[in-house]
Amino acid sequence: MLVAWVFNTLALVIGVLLGARALFDPKWASRLVRLREDEQGGGFAEFRATYGGVFLGLHAATLFMSLKYLMGGEFVLGVAAAGGCAALSAGWAGAAFGRVIALVRDKADTQFNRFSVVFELIMAAALGGPWAAWALGGV
């Protein structure tokens, strides 16, 4: 069970770092996701908000709950943290699923997309590990 939480915490830190970088460097986020700011102006606000703020906020809140639990917090907090991790895991898995559909239906079979599917599935597995361990009877 502890191994699941260690991988989970690492994945949460990666999510926090991705979000923080995108929040403060929207040009980097634009290059990472291979999208451009629109010609109407203000497009970097979307990169800061979605790829920055949402990523940072979700991963930071779940990281906080997870660390509180790991540092001797209540069991209820651990269940809440595992639930938050399960939700984040589902989001990463959903991103991988959407990308696989794009690989097949949109003929978007690129090295970037193949790497992204693997990365998204690793993040989903690492984030979902504590929930899976808990659901399968671990503590």
Give a verbal description of the structure:
By secondary structure, this protein is an all-alpha fold. The chain has one domain (2-135). 83% of the residues lie in helices and 0% in strands. It contains 5 helices and no strands. It has helices spanning 2-24, 26-33, 43-70, 75-105, 111-135. The radius of gyration is 16 Å and the shape is globular. 29% of the residues are buried. The model has no long low-confidence stretch (mean pLDDT 88).
List the helices and strands and how they pair.
Elements: H1 2-24, H2 26-33, H3 43-70, H4 75-105, H5 111-135
Index terms:
mainly alpha, 139 residues
Give the proportion of residues in helices: over 70%
Alpha carbon gyration radius: 16 Å
Shape: globular
* pLDDT averaged residue by residue: 88
Uncertain ranges: none
Number of domain units = 1
Total beta-strand segments? 0
Number of helices: 5
Topology as a string of helices (H) and strands (E) = HHHHH
Q: What proportion of the residues form beta strands (DSSP E)?
A: under 5%
Helix vs. strand class? mainly alpha
End-to-end distance: 7 Å
Largest sheet: none
